[in-house]
Design goal:
Strand order of the largest sheet: 1-2
Strand content: under 5%
Number of domains: 2
InterPro entries: RVT-Znf
Number of helices: 14
Radius of gyration: 31 Å
Distance between the termini: 72 Å
Protein name: Reverse transcriptase zinc-binding domain-containing protein
Domain Reverse transcriptase zinc-binding: 121-193
Number of strands: 2
Structural class: mainly alpha
Largest sheet: 2 strands, antiparallel
Shape: elongated
Length: 289
């Protein structure tokens, strides 16, 4: 009886896991015992199934190791090379690799892990490899750290889901709707921020002072670093104002209901005080001063 209950259950790998392994390893063929012809990335760190997908789909020897390809009449690899020669234009890379490949009986393959200096696998390096090519940002400090009630602020892909939509901003009805326009440059949104600046007697919130920005991220960073006021308070206010702008946009899009800028700022005032009672002490201090 096996000591561990998962013994014999197989390797829980999907196609994405296999692609990650293929991209993360360098294989040097020796005796062919550990290498699968189509599935292993032995051709310049690529799998033959990816180089010649049509040939792979027709192959009946997908799970065959390379060593059994050796026959008494000659090298199985050479025979495969002759077969590939019939489709040399579409399979040239694989054909050349087969011609230059020979097995070394009695010598094991080497599999090198690309993401560590010594070529050995570590779970930490495999985890980091999955984030290669991603863009670093510190927006999490502006979005997730400020206090806010447990609400989710999302922007669904209305077009792909067939929901009602209008390419023109429903708030100003003049400019194309983008995230940057809706939250930053729309004249309706600017009027809301002007009224908020007057309410709080804090002119740094006035949209005319934030300068020209090209993205929501750039504007958010500028607003999140305003002087002479609690950054946590301003960041909570940013979330609240954006949330109310988004709700107003949805009300106009889906329900055909509209609120004026003065009415919307009234809602923001009520919500800000409610957030303060619920625990946003920095915001409560800011709006109550």
């Amino acid at each position: 009886m096996p000591e561990k209950p998962w013994v014999g259950m197989g390797t829980p790998c999907n196609e994405t896991d296999k692609l990650l392994f293929a991209a993360s390893t360098e294989i040097r063929i020796r005796d062919g015992q550990k290498i699968y012809f189509c599935e292993s990335a032995w051709v310049a760190a690529r799998r033959p199934k990816d180089i010649a997908p049509d040939l792979y789909s027709m192959s009946r020897r997908i799970a065959s190791c390379m060593r059994p390809c050796q026959t008494t009449s000659g090298s199985g690899i050479s025979q495969l090379a002759q077969t590939l020669a019939c489709n040399i234009y579409s399979n040239l890379e694989l054909w050349l690799a087969l011609r230059e490949t020979s097995l070394s009986p009695g010598t094991e393959e080497t599999i090198r892990w690309k993401w560590t200096a010594n070529g050995e696998y570590t779970a930490a390096s495999a985890y980091r490899a999955q984030f290669l090519g991603s863009v670093k940002t510190d927006l999490h400090l502006l979005i997730w750290k400020p206090w806010a009630p447990p609400k989710v602020w999302t922007s669904d892909r209305l077009a792909t889901r067939g929901c009602p939509r209008n390419d023109v901003c429903p708030l100003c009805r003049t400019e194309p709707e983008t995230a940057h326009h809706l939250l930053v440059t729309c004249r309706f949104t600017k009027r809301v921020w002007s009224l908020i600046a007057e309410w709080l007697h804090y002119q740094q919130l006035h949209p005319s002072l934030s300068g020209i920005t090209r993205s929501v991220s750039e504007w958010w960073h500028i607003m999140g670093e305003l002087p002479n006021v609690s950054k946590k308070a301003v960041k909570s206010l940013l979330l609240l104002e954006n949330w109310e702008i988004w709700k107003e946009r949805n009300a106009r899009t889906f329900d055909r209901r509209e609120a004026s800028t003065i009415s919307l700022v009234g809602k923001i005032k009520e919500e800000a005080r409610a957030w303060g009672i619920a625990g946003a002490r920095h915001l409560a201090s800011f709006v109550g001063r």
